[in-house]
Amino acid sequence: MRRSFRVLLCLAATAVGLTTLSAPANAAAHNYVALGDSYSSGVGTGGTYSGGGCKRSTNAYPQLWANTHAPASFNFAACSGATTTDVLNSQLGSLTARTTLVTISIGGNDAGFVDVITTCTLGSDSTCVNRVEQGKTFARNTLPARLDNVYSAIRQRSPSARVVVLGYPRFYKVPGSCNVGLSDTKRSAINSGADVLAQVTAQRAAAAGFTFVDIRGAWTGHEICSGDWWLNSLTWPVEESYHPNKNGQARGYLPALNAVTG
């Protein structure tokens, strides 16, 4: 009888242990920090922004993810206009050893995103193509070391965190039939810049052991000049231009993030 009782106790303890080990990961256990630039802060979605010049929106994918997953903590540190230097100097303080999930989009401003769009909007086809090529050269030759510095710093501050790097979409459907003032030559050039930026970012994220989310596939059919735009074209206020709108954040970025976080 005593032996049978001891066996039952052992089996019960084993069952409890197996239940504990096999319990699914709960998003509520996450300590989530959202880093990055305006594509992460939510510029382009309209409405009221918080964070002063950082322009953080309740319609941005980090906030939407936090709303639906209810993490243990959420720190929304992404800031409009941020470069890799800004992340290193102003955003990494949000990370701790207890951080379990980090998302980031960064690199577009380093590569001269605003100047590329301005040049292509105001200049000739050849001027646009040349400016995009300059940006692609920067992305291939200079940006990798900057991304490495950011990714290394994230890992040092949050050694156990899952880090998800989200890329940028292609901007235009080519050929496309809409009145946005840009030729197919310019649209193709801008898209080629987005492709190079995605390739470089994917390589450096992989080298750091991070998860890269290539947003271009999800955006196919939703570019400017498509039937269902997830990006603003030139609009007012101007700073909203060429950024994801509400659908871009909720139907583009959020599902892509959900796909890799469960």
From TrEMBL:
InterPro entries: SEST-like (IPR037460), SGNH_hydro (IPR013830), SGNH_hydro_sf (IPR036514)
Gene3D superfamilies given in the database record: SGNH hydrolase
Domain of life of the organism encoding this protein: Bacteria
Molecular function, one GO term: hydrolase activity
Pfam family, one: Lipase_GDSL_2
Keyword check for Isomerase: no
CDD domains to which the protein is assigned, alphabetical: SEST_like
UniProt entry tagged with the keyword Hydrolase: yes
Domain SGNH hydrolase-type esterase, residue spans: 34-250
Keywords: Hydrolase, Signal
Signal peptide: 1-27
Xref: PANTHER family: LIPASE 2 (PTHR37981), SGNH HYDROLASE-TYPE ESTERASE DOMAIN-CONTAINING PROTEIN (PTHR37981:SF1)
Name used for this protein in its record: Secreted hydrolase
Origin species: Kibdelosporangium persicum
